[in-house]
Amino acid sequence: MSVALKPNEIGTKIIDGKQFARSIRRDIRQQVKKLNFIPGLAVVQVGDHPASTVYVSNKEKDCQYVHFHSEVHRMPAETPQAAVIAQIHALNSREDIHGIIAQMPVPDSIDGDAVINTIAPEKDADGLTLVNLGNLLINREKTVPCTPAGIIRLIESTGVAVEGSRAVCVGRSSLVGKPVGLMLLNRNATVTYCHTRTRELSSATQQADILIAASGKPQLITADMVKPGAVVIDVGITITENGFVGDVDFEGVKEVAGFITPVPGGVGPMTRAMLLENTLKLALAQKEK
């Protein structure tokens, strides 16, 4: 599957994550029409965190488009952890639910890791249980986290070879930085991890054929830090008085990079698309048993 690559005036190609995600959703929709069952995705949301509520609403719309069964179990912020875990156990046992998500963040009174690891690994649509992260570590990828999966697809869509390339991940979170670095390593890239406390950060980023910015620090990556022709994937998104900005100084870096993702419209849409793809894969695997 190809992704729209839009050259700017100097030849740098802007990676259109929105269009790529739309094509993935259309493909999933067509696959579901051929099935003799309906894939089911359930979300457990504790509290009413505004960003989470918007994200969950978008997931519901995505499921509706691809003809998935979708459920959202909204629980008050004061819900005891035991009740949240009980809800996930109930979903684990249902044959019509093939994928489960524990929407983060959860209230401080709840151990988010404990909640996530209650999800049966074979129904872990976000790929965040210890079992699935452990499989990633030993190069036995099963269900992988959605944002890293989307990043890999965007990189591969450029036609730039991952094998043998130098990849630098600026960010070390368990959601993005660490897993995407492992996925690149599993694909035979040479991977360097950096973060906001890395000394002489630019000396590392300037060597990157593939540069992933996922530090959460707005416009950390500037043009002088980027190798000419590099693939630059901007995962960050921060709301400012001037709108959304990423971890990359887009206007400056697009003059140097070979490929670059915009913010918004790059990685974000792919995260949601990968959630649908993960759910479909889980549903097919469960039906094969």
Brief overview:
This protein has helices spanning 17-33, 50-66, 81-92, 112-116, 130-137, 146-157, 177-186, 201-205, 250-253, 267-288; strands at residues 5-7, 13-15, 40-46, 69-75, 99-102, 166-170, 190-194, 210-213, 231-234, 238-240, 243-245, 259-260. It is of the alpha/beta class and 289 residues long. Helix 2 (50-66) links the parallel strand 3 (40-46) and strand 4 (69-75).
Keywords:
10 helices; Rossmann fold; 289 residues; alpha/beta; 2 domains; seven-stranded mixed beta sheet; three-stranded parallel beta sheet
Structure description:
The chain has 289 residues and is α/β, with parallel strands linked by helices. The protein folds into two domains: 37-120, Leucine Dehydrogenase, chain A, domain 1 (Rossmann fold, 3-Layer(aba) Sandwich), CATH 3.40.50.10860; 144-268, Rossmann fold. It has ten helices and twelve strands. The strands form three sheets. The protein has a seven-stranded mixed β-sheet with strand order 1-2-12-9-8-6-7. The relative contact order is 0.16.
Order of helices and strands: EEHEHEHEHHHEHEHEEEEHEH
Strand content: 15-25%
Low-confidence region ranges: none
Q: Estimate the global geometry from the Cα principal axes.
A: globular
**Largest sheet strand order:** 1-2-12-9-8-6-7
Strands, count: 12
Q: Round the Cα radius of gyration to an integer and report it.
A: 19 Å
- Note the total helix count: 10
Helix content: 25-40%
Largest sheet, described in full? 7 strands, mixed
**CATH class membership of the largest domain:** Alpha Beta
Provide the number of structural domains.
Answer: 2
The name of the CATH superfamily of the largest domain reads: NAD(P)-binding Rossmann-like Domain
Which structural class do you get from the secondary structure elements? alpha/beta
N-to-C CA distance: 28 Å
